[in-house]
Design a protein that fits this description.
single chain, alpha+beta
């Protein structure tokens, strides 16, 4: 008996293809799953950036205020927002690329006060800090009496430099709704000899010491008891002291205390800044300022108070930083206090 087959290339009766409706359902399900994974990935990125920025702000801020504390501990004079302080502030040759934030001012020392927010009308708080730091003394071995038959003597010449901590604008990577961000800058001047110390020496002795200072690179002496217009004397190669002379205090170094604010470590997509005072105010958990009465861009996120009598000042520094990613803000504030023994 002959059996006729259905053919080897034919489709089995139990097999069939996918209909259009079934393909659309599969595509819809895959789209939903893909969207869920995308949202999960984006949420993970946002969480990672929030954690990074929150940790970074705490770390960057603490490093900056600690550095200011270490420098101020060795200061010999703090300037206030008075005629003398304003004169010295104006005498600093700040770089044009890093100007002082408009409205900035030095603090006013409160001899009998405590650290507290300013009351209405008070101007104790500043957002710039100008100090004179004492450096390692220079040992000058000199013929103090002009007599070659006597032994030379060692003289420890005091050396100082001016230091200013202040806020400046930078336009790259601004913080919305503003068109700029703020940076905290340290200005360090060239070194100065102590004119008060030198002027008390006999003429021959003074000349020989001044020659050593000139050879060490010092070109000016500073009189700590005078205002900026009468405080500077030029040191000549022959050991002469000429002055007082008109003098702009040149920088030896100007640098950001927050170089990390240029961007986050993970993607660089976050924008960092010192807190900005303005209208509308930044919606942050930490207030931009807590000590000063706000006015214009003053004080923004850097506040300084000085209390105590001359010779035993106490300085409070508060630094508030913000980070922004897709208009979302995080913030952190650091503060430190230090005692300063002035002249």
């Amino acid at each position: 008996m002959t059996v006729t087959g259905s053919g080897g290339s034919g489709r089995g009766r139990g097999e069939r293809g996918m209909t259009l409706a079934e393909m659309l359902v599969v595509l819809a399900l895959m789209s939903i799953v893909g969207l869920m994974f995308t949202q999960l990935y984006v949420g993970t990125i946002h969480t990672t950036m929030f954690l990074e920025s929150n940790n970074d702000l705490a770390l960057f801020g603490q490093e900056a205020v600690n550095e200011i504390k270490l420098e101020i501990m060795q200061s010999r004079r703090l300037f206030q927002n008075d005629t003398v302080g304003q004169g010295y502030l104006a005498a600093l040759a700040l770089p044009s690329a890093q100007p002082l934030l408009t409205g900035s001012r030095l603090p006013e020392a409160d001899p009998n006060g405590v650290f507290r927010p300013d009351a209405s009308g008070e101007t104790r708080t500043g957002n710039a800090l100008l100090a004179v730091r004492e450096l390692e003394a220079i040992t000058a071995t000199v013929d103090h009496d002009g007599d070659a038959s006597t032994a030379d003597v060692d003289f420890l010449a005091d050396v100082f430099r001016f230091q200013l901590y202040y806020l400046t604008k930078r336009t790259e990577k601004p913080i919305e709704p503003f068109v700029y961000a703020l940076d905290l800058v340290e200005f360090e001047s060239q070194s100065y000899a102590d004119y008060f110390q030198l002027s008390g020496l006999p003429s021959t002795y003074r000349t020989e010491v001044a020659k050593v200072l000139y050879a060490a690179g010092l070109r000016f002496a500073w009189d700590p008891g005078q205002d900026a217009a009468n405080a500077f004397y030029q040191i000549g190669s022959d050991g002469s002291l000429t002055g007082p002379v008109t003098h702009q205090v040149p920088p030896a170094r100007v640098r950001s205390l927050l170089p990390q604010l240029r961007g986050g470590r993970i993607t660089g997509a976050m924008d960092y800044s010192v807190g900005i005072t303005g209208t509308p105010p930044l919606q942050t958990i930490d207030p931009v300022s807590v000590m000063a009465q706000e006015s214009g861009s003053f004080p923004s996120g850097f506040e300084v108070q000085v209390i105590g009598p001359s010779g035993a000042r106490k300085v409070l520094v508060r630094l508030m930083l913000v980070a922004q990613y897709q208009q979302k803000l995080t913030s952190h504030a650091n503060s430190v206090s230090v005692t300063v023994a002035e002249f």
